[in-house]
Amino acid sequence: MVVLSVSVPRTGGRGPVRVLGVALTSTALALGLSGHALACDIRDFSAAATCDGSHGVITVTDRDASGTPVTVTVFLTDDDDADVRKVGELPVEGSAEGAEVTFPEDWKPDATYRVRVRTGDGAVDEDIEGGLTTPGTGCGTAAGPAPAPSWSGPASPAPRASGSGLPLDATYYPPSPAAHGTRLAETGAARGTGLAAGVAAALVAVGGGAVFLGRRGRGAGGA
């Protein structure tokens, strides 16, 4: 409590007294406002769901400039705002810059939590307004299936069908499309083959004639 001692002169008009009254009222208001500013208030607290690597955490920040010791308790809630599980409870002393307390919690996307703040004397015993709703994306990203390997080389040889003259396990390589409709190289082999066939036919004819004439000569001499 602040006590102000003021001596008011007995002589004088009402003006100085009126000025003094205004000054005292202003001082009292200033002291009241400063005392309220230094008191712990639930509006000094905030909560957020973040990721620490692949794991989730819930961080509560205390910006109470008075540094009043408080206890922070976090609860997981359901769709009806009923408590499902107590995540944890930790003490913290705030500061104007903000003091943080962290709760390890592998939270799920779009989950809701209740954050309770309580002072030792019970002056503050409230939930952070609006609670906490986690982001729509979790901390861990599941790896998808590996893509199937692709083969860009030549096509695999087709197996030889039954009755083709080769064993069933023999490998058959289809002919190249370039081979169809293409003439053999002009090496003279085709021409040579025709010429040899003509010469052979002539020799056969000559040989047959000689044999025939020889037989006739023998027959005439024997007669």
Strand tally is 10
**What would the principal axes of the Cα set say about the shape?**
rod-shaped
Tell me the radius of gyration.
Answer: 55 Å
Order of helices and strands: HEEEEEEEEEEH
CATH architecture label of the domain at 42-133: Sandwich
Task: List segments where confidence is low: pLDDT < 50 over at least 5 consecutive residues.
Answer: 28-36
CATH topology of the domain at 42-133: Immunoglobulin-like
| Assembly state of the chains shown | single chain
Largest sheet: 5 strands, antiparallel
- Give the distance, in angstroms, between the N- and C-terminal Cα atoms: 176 Å
Q: Would you tell me the overall average pLDDT?
A: 74
Structural class: alpha+beta
> Helical amount among residues, as a percent range?
25-40%
What does this structure look like?
The chain is of the alpha+beta class. The chain has a domain at 42-133: Immunoglobulins (Immunoglobulin-like), CATH 2.60.40.10. Helix content is 26%, strand content 26%. The protein contains two helices and ten strands; from the N terminus they run αββββββββββα. It has helices at residues 14-37, 189-222; strands at 45-52, 55-62, 69-77, 83-93, 99-104, 112-119, 125-127, 132-133, 158-159, 171-172. The strands form three sheets. Strands 3, 4, 6, 7 and 8 form a five-stranded antiparallel β-sheet that branches. Strand 6 and strand 7 (125-127) form a beta hairpin. The longest helix is centred in the last third of the chain and has 34 residues, at 189-222. The N and C termini lie far apart (176 Å).
